[in-house]
Each structure stands twice: as structure tokens, then as C-alpha cells.
Write a structure and sequence with these properties.
- Helices cover about 40% and strands about 10% of the residues.
- It is α/β, with parallel strands linked by helices.
- It has a domain of about 190 residues: Uracil-DNA glycosylase-like domain (Uracil-DNA Glycosylase, subunit E).
- Helix 2 packs antiparallel against helix 5.
- Bound molecules: uracil.
- Uracil binds next to helix 4.
């Protein structure tokens, strides 16, 4: 590579670093993730749910075992295997807000009645623009999210926000949700059964918001959304997939990126996000 090309390359890497928040490169101890080896893809931590110490379990007023599956009454899409296209929503923003509020209530009621109370405190439904073109879907809430009842508010969330900013958007302009709506005990990965039981709610949520693009954050999210237990995020990230007729981009989870904060990984995620920007017609930064 000649000197000019090298300078260009370094400039490009510096721009990516700045856009992805190089001012907060983790220097101390990486966040701890409780591994569940059976679930863990080889290339990503078993759980990316949160970065704070484990919250002590609360008393257990609710049942420990699952009741029989109870999809939300208003669900239109019966199963996670079903890849029936989600019709573009015709709801007004006001109607979307009302529909999401009603769905939130269904989720809370479902969790309160049927979810084992094994350490979570607050349901984390999701938040953002009910009419967003772009939806991020993570794995499940961690300790910070559980405390606040909001998705992606811990260290991984801060990096996600920087990524959103680098895309020229704000957190309020996108919608952020998770596969799991309650923090799994010890930050473990949601089990396939848990994901399956939450999927009707998530599908309904997506149907209401009706985004143009979904970004699956991390192996667990991509695996469950694409219904492929063998999915390897290192292989599958960066390639467009179809999710019920919606463009889906799998990429690394921000918590994984924090743990593996190499310039190659940052560039990979930035490439994925730029592809998303392109698909949404957003202005790309100058090279
Ligand atoms: N990790 C996730 O997958 N979701 C959150 O909300 C926070 C961290």
C-alpha cells in the first residue's frame, strides 16, 4: 500500500472509531457475562444481557413453572416458524401508540401471571418511535435494564446509542426492543422455550411499528429471529436476510463489541450499519 493509501486507510479507521465512540474504549475490566455453554455460539458471549453485577433475587410471589403457552389474544401471527409476510401497517401514529400501550399491558399481565419470578423486577417492553423505520432487537434485558424497565440503558446501550448517533439518528428516532421481555436469571441467554413464548408479542410489536429494516443485535437475537439455532454470527453478520418480508441485518451485539473491541470488529459493525443506512436512504458520511 502506498503512503497516500495508507493515510486514507488510517483516516477512515479514525473516522469509524470516532463514529463508534472511540472516546469510550473500555480500558478496565470487560463486563462479565454469565456463560451458558450449551447456548453460546462459539463466536459471541453466551449472554450479552447486561454489564452490571447480578441483582439479588427478589422474593418469589409468582409461579416458578411455566403455564401452558398463552400467545397474546390479539396476535395475528401464530408461530415463530411461520414466515408469513407482515403486512405494512396502515395504523396512524396515534393508533400505533395505543396499540403498543395495549400490547405492553398484555406483556406485563402475561409475565406477571405466567413467567417464573426468578430474579427479574421490571418487564422491559421496548421503547422508541412507534413509527420508526429502523428497529433494533437485542437478546434480553440485563441488570441495568431490569432496574429501569428500559432496553439498552447499560454499557452496551451506551455503545448502541453511539452507533445510532453515528448513523445520523437519535435513540428517539428508532425503536429498541429485545427477544426477552424479562431479565433471565444471572444474565443467561433466553432459552428456546422462553424465546418461543415471547415471539408472538415481539411479532405483534413489529407488526404495529412496521419498520423498514430490523437490525438483529447479536447471535441470540439473529438465531431466534431467523429460527436457526446453528446460526454463527461471525459468518452471517453483514448479509441481508428476510424476516416476514422485512429486511433484516444481523450484526454483532454491542456487548460483544465491547468485549472484542478490535478495529476490525468496529469496522465490521460500521459496515453493517452503513448498509442499513443505505437501505433506508440515509446520508452516508464522507470517506
Ligand atoms: N443487552 C440486550 O440484549 N438487551 C438489552 O436491553 C441490554 C443489553
Amino acid at each position: 500500500m502506498d503512503a497516500a493509501a495508507q493515510t486514507r486507510k488510517i483516516r477512515q479507521l479514525l473516522t469509524i472509531d470516532r463514529l463508534l465512540g472511540a472516546d469510550s474504549v473500555p480500558l478496565g475490566r470487560a463486563p462479565e457475562f454469565t456463560a451458558s455453554p450449551a447456548e453460546a455460539p462459539p463466536d459471541e458471549p453466551a449472554s450479552v444481557g447486561g454489564s452490571s453485577p447480578h441483582t439479588p433475587p427478589t422474593p418469589n410471589p409468582r409461579p416458578r413453572s411455566f403455564a401452558s403457552p398463552q400467545p397474546p389474544s390479539s396476535t395475528l401471527i401464530p408461530s415463530m416458524q411461520d414466515q408469513t409476510p407482515i403486512a405494512a401497517s396502515t395504523l396512524s401514529v396515534k393508533e400505533k401508540i395505543a396499540a403498543l400501550d395495549a400490547l405492553r399491558e398484555e406483556v406485563v399481565a402475561f409475565l406477571t401471571e405466567h413467567w417464573p419470578q426468578d430474579g427479574w423486577n421490571n418487564p422491559v417492553f421496548g421503547e422508541g418511535d412507534p413509527d420508526a423505520d429502523l428497529m433494533f432487537i437485542g437478546e434480553a434485558p440485563g441488570a441495568d435494564e431490569d432496574r429501569q424497565g428500559r432496553p439498552f440503558v447499560g454499557r452496551a446501550g451506551q455503545l448502541l446509542e453511539k452507533q445510532i448517533t453515528a448513523m445520523g439518528l437519535t435513540r428517539e428516532q428508532v425503536y429498541i426492543a429485545n427477544i426477552g421481555k424479562a431479565r433471565p436469571p444471572g444474565n443467561r441467554v433466553p432459552t428456546p422455550e422462553e424465546a418461543d413464548r415471547m415471539m408472538p408479542f415481539l411479532l405483534k410489536q413489529i407488526e404495529i411499528i412496521s419498520p423498514k429494516v430490523i437490525v438483529a443485535l447479536g447471535a441470540t437475537s439473529a438465531k431466534y429471529l431467523l429460527n436457526n439455532p446453528k446460526l454463527a454470527i461471525t459468518r452471517e453478520r453483514g448479509a441481508w436476510r428476510d424476516f416476514h418480508g422485512i429486511d433484516l441485518m444481523p450484526t454483532f451485539h454491542p456487548a460483544y463489541l465491547l468485549r472484542q473491541y478490535t478495529k476490525e470488529n468496529r469496522a465490521r459493525v460500521w459496515d453493517d450499519l452503513q448498509a442499513v443506512m443505505q437501505r433506508l436512504g440515509l446520508k452516508l458520511p464522507k470517506k
